[in-house]
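Re: Re: token formats

Sure, here are both.
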Amino acid sequence: MSINLLRDIRSFRVVVIHPQDAEAEELLRQLHRIGCQARAEWPPPKDRPSGVDLIFLDMTRLLSGQGRLSWSTADEGPPIVAVLDYESPTVLKALVDYGVRGFVSKPIRAFGLLTTMFMAHRAAEGERGMRKRLQKVEQRLDGIKKVSKAKAILIEQRRITEEEAYRFIRERAMARRTTIEAVAAAIIDASEMLMAENPTR
């Protein structure tokens, strides 16, 4: 997987959000040398750059008020690599706030650039994978809660055991060719609708 990613980096589409000066020119030159399709933009674009794989961001200029982002870096998107002049507590806080996945320091050098890009993209991919796994776990837990609630409704309404209630839900799901969670949700909705129509029950 890592080898494929390294190969892919050489064809990355990259945006360098940095004033067009000697440092930006050197960064673009190094990116082109790697094989990337790279362009510079300044001031920062109004919208998050689309159709790109990586963003280099001049953090120093942003912190000094010379540029401003009007889009959220918290949203899922291409990983951000900060371009730094110096280190300070303010800079470190900004790296966290902007969700930065790596950094390069000025003056721009060829050494370490490819590694930084590789690690930044790998970290972002890992985070996306973790979010997907977490979402699946949350959906699974939500499904378990719905099934438990539906069983409780059936036990009360039909005076049956928990095992019988689960069997009822499972058989209904098989008959309708749907999921147990979907049947459970339908039972809950029907019960809540009935309660709304007959609040004294």
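Second one below.
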Amino acid sequence: MSQNIEISKYDKLIADVGIIFEEARKALVTAYWQIGKRIVEIEQDGNVRAKYGANLINSLSKDLTRKYGPGFSRENLIKIRAFYNKHPKGSAPTLLNWTKYRELLSIKDDHKRIELEKKAARENISSNDLRRIVKEEKNKSSNKALSGIEPELLDRPTNLTLNTYKLSDDPQNKVPAGHISLDCGFYVDLCVPAKLKPQLTQKPSFVYSANVIRVVDGDTLLVEIDLGFNARTRTRLRLRGINTPELSTPEGASAKRSVERTLPKGKSIILKTYSTDIFGRFVADLLYMKENSTPNEIADHGIFLNNQLLEKGIAVPI
């Protein structure tokens, strides 16, 4: 009888630990979702945006790591923000653990990602097996670029007027007399003398001249943008409407090398941006010319890189 009682206590201990562990797992996922939500909310706050600009994530990473220790790297904060952006409605999803949700963030097709989330929960797929499944899905997408099927090309960007602005959301009474505050995009507000007469509009084109700093992979670049008025900013661009193979694959490495040959460091380009993706990169169309050209010449006659990568089979449409 005594032995049976001890076994019963041990079984209860196992059950209790399981409950505690499951609650902790859900709490971690919920915490990351809530952190991501706050980051997105703050990024949409005009005053905070004006102060920190594109450096918000970097500042957060530095300050949170100093105060709370590991777990707040720039890369992890970007994933946390992306996690919220993938699940912005209602409350945090808690069917899976954080490792599995993070793995699934690399699936760009939302329908496929949701399908895999349900499959992973339903079949209790391990993190290692899920990583393998995700890799296979990404390879399937990459292989479409090698299938020989004629790709559907993107519409060439229109309204390529350079350097148009709208008045920033900051109350204009904070601006010195004789000046105006411009929203340049990219989380940058500029205070400039009104006598310079910048091109003001309610719907800026977000078209600027820039120089390539580095090719990150086949569809992502780090660039320095000329915002006008002697102001420049650095940001990452994600080419609109296309996807190249993962950098860890031979095809992905080849795609990166191809873009590097086309756009070496310092190459002049024209970009038109639309929004940010879930990782905070600005989604963009990119134009360039093989020979040295003025920004207006590139805007009028430049090669549309997004389509060029599709035509060469280096990228697939998304």
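The chain has two domains: 2-146, 164-317. The domain at 164-317 is CATH 2.40.50.90 (OB fold (Dihydrolipoamide Acetyltransferase, E2P)).
- S.
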